[in-house]
Amino acid sequence: MSYKYNNYYYWENVLSNKKEVWKCSIMNTLDLQKSIYINTTILDYDKNTLDNNWACYPDIKSLLGFMQYIYLPTAFFYIVNSDNDDDIFMPICSTEEFIEYIKKTGYNESIVNIMEQNLNELISYWDREELSINTIKEFCYKFNNMWNNEKNILYINVFSNPSEIADFIIKNEDFIEVVEEDIGLSKNQFYNLCENVYYNKFTKNIFVEFLNNKIGCIV
């Protein structure tokens, strides 16, 4: 089956129209509960670079497209060009073209092979009749373990609903006071905020902005 999100032209058009892809809040208009939240990070200790974003996509296929055509190419382009002083760059091209590009950079072959494997795994998901969020979560778990070292961290986490985000943020009771101070809400207030996303128009509209401004990096 063909999906509009499985085409770099779609993402190129989105960007050319100056639409947000990293911090967007695009909820499913037919069923809000199909919306999926994602947190992505590119962290470079040597350059003191941190790029961290929260976004909401309307369904799992749009999320998959963002991961395949936006996040992974941007993160991998940064890694293979880490000796340059350039800012984070977002390459927009087909996945096949991008794989050919990273192979020609002369970067560490074993690492480039891992990049190719990551991208090919995402490609394979388009052929599945049913793609569950658990499959994406499993990919993220493997990806995060793979790309966590002393120099760089690449990180993806996905959440099926706002309450799942709250559970993740406040999973460690030892840090509740710190979290409450950082976000300016008590534990109960934070849970109430998350639970109201589906039912309160104002909360729905500001939730992703709140995540970016108050929660930030959770690596």
Q: Your description of this structure?
A:
It is a single chain. Helix content is 51%, strand content 12%. It has 219 residues and is mainly alpha-helical. It has 2 domains: 153 residues, no CATH class; 58 residues, no CATH class. It is globular and about 50 Å long. 27% of the residues are buried. The mean pLDDT is 93.
Short description:
The chain has 9 helices and 3 strands, in the order αββααααβαααα. The protein has 219 residues and is mainly alpha-helical. It has 2 domains: 8-160, no CATH class; 162-219, no CATH class.
Defining key terms:
219 residues, mainly alpha, 2 domains, three-stranded antiparallel sheet, 9 helices, 12% strand
Give the secondary structure arrangement, pairings included.
Layout: H1 8-16, E1 36-44, E2 49-57, H2 60-80, H3 95-104, H4 109-125, H5 133-146, E3 152-159, H6 162-169, H7 176-183, H8 187-195, H9 201-215
Antiparallel strand pairs: 1-2, 1-3
Helix pairs in contact: 2-4, 3-4, 6-8
Overall SS class: mainly alpha
Largest sheet: 3 strands, antiparallel
Q: How many domains comprise the coordinates?
A: 2
Q: What is the strand content?
A: 5-15%
- End-to-end separation in angstroms reads 35 Å
Please list the strands of the largest sheet in the order they lie side by side.
2-1-3
- Report Rg: 18 Å
**Approximate shape:** globular
Overall strand count: 3
- Average of per-residue pLDDT values: 93
Q: Catalogue the unreliable spans.
A: none
In percent, how helical is the residue content?
Answer: 40-55%
